[in-house]
Specification:
The protein is of the alpha/beta class. It is built from 17 helices and 14 strands. Helices cover 43% and strands 12% of the residues. The strands form 5 sheets. It has a 5-stranded parallel β-sheet, with helices on both faces. It has a 3-stranded antiparallel β-sheet with strand order 5-7-8. Strand 3 and strand 4 form a beta hairpin.
Length: 477
């Protein structure tokens, strides 16, 4: 039997060995973390697209296209025939960067001298629009497309929106002064082809994806719930100081910047799907851009409600419903009166109710009814000659190629029909495991699972405006 000191020494050596291993693993973990962090930074700001040239000359037009780092380029002004100083806005002016957000100051839209508004900031970055052309269902929302754009983070720039719009207009008016050869006709900003407002959970994403397939790749672009338009539409809310004329100019500027497409292929089409809450400000949109076609997508009210309450346990008390707060229709439920939509308060006042009187189901139904009511009000206040449609979910996808696109002047050929039918057969929000999966109809299931409390809320708040929309829809047939 070995001496006691030998046994203790062996145990001590074993413990020391374990401690050394733990320290070694910890150092390796820290080193790996630092290496991954450094790689992420290098990838985001330099390595992503390292093989992409800083600029290229388009063979068809002779246009110089700035690609990665426009701030480092030496520019040649074609009209002045000389080198000109660099400008951080060059990537924006050349159409390389896309408007991804705007920031309206809390003081509101304030005019200064000859400027319609001041201090509104605009953020741009490089967006990989080819990913939308490949499969719109995999990037169904603009945020998905932005996240899938590897060059966005490294090319982000924030500038004054009013100033950059004026520079862009001047650049466009001067026929692309940085061109290597004389500019070709037909290029320039693209006016909105159509704008989609919606009730939410009603097939609006499918509609947007169908529009992505309405023309050959590189001929169409769809902004699906991109932040800038809705921010401009809501710029005069929340008791901000706001001049209606300033807001109209802001809205026009935002759509102008987002429509600056430098693709060689022509014609170009640009569709916009606005966040559901944006329809509360549809009047501001039609005032600023009265000739732009718009549409409102809606669905059977019970089905919309059940989609919002997908994770709601109706047999559980309210305090045990944490996921209910995630429902889009309940985002304003606990907000103060001054932050409630005006249309919602108007509807409740007509019924002799206040927000505090409503259950979650009632508030959701009232909120959805206020969205639809805003669209109906705008429809009734605009000339009958205006292009606007109300689209029921049960009319999709066929109404898109049978009525909407022809109404917008599109010629729907077999190739276009095939592209749209392929889009219609898969989940419109094909993220993760749903990517490329065949869509399964769920209307019957939603109707069967709807509890009485949902049906009562629908009957109380949503049924009247749904009937109005159906009447408008019938006139369109």
């Amino acid at each position: 039997m070995p001496p006691l000191t030998v046994i203790k020494t062996k145990k001590l050596d074993a413990n020391n060995s374990k401690q050394r291993n733990v320290r070694l693993y910890f150092k390796l973990a820290v080193w790996l973390f630092l290496m991954l962090t450094a790689y992420q930074i290098l990838w985001s700001y330099w390595l992503a697209g390292v093989g992409v040239p800083d600029y290229e000359i388009d063979k068809a037009t002779g246009q110089k296209r700035i690609r990665r780092r426009p701030d480092l380029l030496v520019k040649h002004d074609y009209l002045l025939n000389k080198e000109v100083p660099n400008d951080p806005m060059d990537g924006i002016l050349e159409g390389f960067l896309t408007l991804i957000n705007i920031y309206v100051p809390s003081k509101g839209l304030v005019s200064y001298n000859d400027q319609a508004y001041t201090d509104v900031k605009a953020t741009f970055c490089s967006i990989s629009w080819d990913k939308q052309a490949e499969d719109p269902s995999k990037v169904p929302m603009f945020r998905d497309l932005q996240e899938a754009s590897p060059l966005c983070r490294g090319t982000t720039i924030t500038v004054d929106l009013y100033q950059v719009t004026r520079k862009a207009m001047d650049y466009d008016f001067r026929n692309h002064t940085f061109a290597a050869t004389p500019p070709k006709p037909g290029q320039g900003p693209v006016s909105p082809t159509a704008v989609v407002f919606h009730e939410s959970r009603c097939g609006s994403t499918l509609l947007a994806n169908l529009f992505s397939a309405s023309a050959p790749p590189n001929h169409v672009r769809v902004y699906s719930e991109s932040p800038p338009p809705v921010a401009a539409l809501k710029a005069c809310e929340m008791q901000r100081r706001c001049d209606a004329g300033a807001q109209s100019q802001l809205i026009r500027d935002v759509f102008y910047l987002m429509g600056r497409i430098t693709r060689v292929e022509r014609p170009q089409f640009v569709f916009y799907k606005i966040q559901s809450v944006g329809v509360h400000s549809i009047g501001a949109f039609t005032k600023a851009m009265p000739n732009v076609p718009w549409m409102f997508a809606y669905r059977d009210s019970v089905e919309v409600m059940m989609s919002h309450f997908k994770h709601y346990q109706f047999d559980q008390p309210q305090q045990q419903q944490p996921q209910a707060h995630n429902a889009v229709c309940l985002r304003n439920y606990q907000k103060p009166l001054q932050q409630q939509p005006a249309k919602l308060l108007e509807m409740l006042t007509e019924k002799g109710l206040s927000v505090g009187d409503l259950s979650r189901e009632d508030y959701c139904a009232a909120h959805l009814a206020s969205l639809a009511g805003s669209a109906v009000d705008e429809y009734q206040s605009t000339p009958a000659t205006s292009k606007r449609w109300f689209i029921n979910y049960n009319q999709l996808p066929h109404i898109t190629w049978e009525k909407i696109l022809p109404g917008l002047g599109f010629s729907v050929d077999d190739a276009t029909m095939n592209r749209m039918q392929q889009v219609a057969h898969v989940y419109s929000k094909g993220r993760g495991t749903k990517a490329g999966q065949e869509f399964l109809e769920d209307s019957t299931q939603k109707q069967d699972k709807a509890p009485e409390v949902v049906k009562q809320a629908v009957a109380e708040f949503m049924a009247p405006v749904y009937e109005q929309m159906e009447a408008i829809n019938a006139k369109q047939q």
